[in-house]
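W.,

You were right to be curious about this one. When I first looked at the sequence I had no strong expectations either way, so I just let the prediction run and decided to look at it fresh. Below is the sequence, 392 residues in total, followed by the output.
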Amino acid sequence: MSVPADNAEDLFPAEQPPVLAAQLPREPKPWHKPRKQWIRKNQWATLVDELLTSRKPADRPFKYLTLPGDDLFDIRILHEVCTKHQILLKFLGFDSTRKTEVNIASDEIMRLLWIHKESQLLPDRVELLATAKSLAFEHAEKFQGFDAINLDFCDSVGGREAGTKGGALDAIRTIIDLQTREAAHPWLLFVTSRCDRASVDQTVRAILAKILLENMSESPAFLGRITSSPFALSQAMLNDEENGKQATGEKEHLFTFGVGFSKWLIKLAVAVWGVKQTYTAGYRVAGQATQPDMLSLAFRFDRINPLVTDATGLASPPAKVKPAQPPAKDEMVATALNEFENLTDVDDLLVKNETVREQMIAENAALMAQARYDLDAIITWGRAQFQPAAPS
């Protein structure tokens, strides 16, 4: 394996000063459950691997925007993918907690062989991207387009009142605008968001319901699908939701929020990008949730490049080669519906499939061990997550 010149000093990590807090015992948190490893591996890493495979030769760094969490696990696993492709990973991370653990993890990450030395972890909230004069926006703009953007929120992107300046939805709109101005290449967007009713503001629910109602009136095909199983969303239900009445159960609300969000995203980007939703999954955060209340969504964006023609006749006519037709908006929405119909309930999958469960427990523990967690203790803890709770 050839070593990137800018990173050659990483061959000698022993010369670095020791991290004094590295030996402190570490306890796992609820968000460390093995199901998150399934998301990292089967959604984030898989799609990045596919993108890098199609992008060869690797003529520039893989540029990545992320909300990495205390241990930077997503960066660690994508570093493995970039190592496989021998391409530098250049990241811009946002973490406003300023915790000691974040600083230790950042130091560990920056020593990795295929991490670009100009990578940055900012002590800011990603929502500041929506403010054009903010340092967050200025740093993002300097990247001149990202290859993957991972918005792994703990709460809901729709948790604040619709139209709120500087909210998560505003940040997503800004990101798409920034990518439209800066990125000519395909790119990925990952969004993790709470989708239960209590986590989504009523004004957001109303607009998402309106978006679906408009699509129902415009497309008989969409109407037929959205009113059928598994969605079972009627126009009466959505009218009530738009008017602020609680008309759907949690399962129907998941689809109202999820499909509505995907439709909104497609509508934002469709003039410039072909948007393909893929690898859609969900899991449970609340202890008593009967179905997923957290969605993990993935989208691939491919720029639409129409043929350049000269209507004046000064230049010769273009060769009679039809350009690749971008997918129609209805086709993009139909793909999103397919993904929600086949949504992977990760909790249910791991409970029912022992082989996959044990694989995720082992891989999750190995990844956490890189961040100074005890390997055997995390394996034991991971298995305990699938044991029935003791009667009180």
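Here's what jumped out at me. The first strand starts at residue 62 and ends at 66. And, maybe more interesting for your project: The radius of gyration is 22 Å.

Coffee later to discuss?

I.
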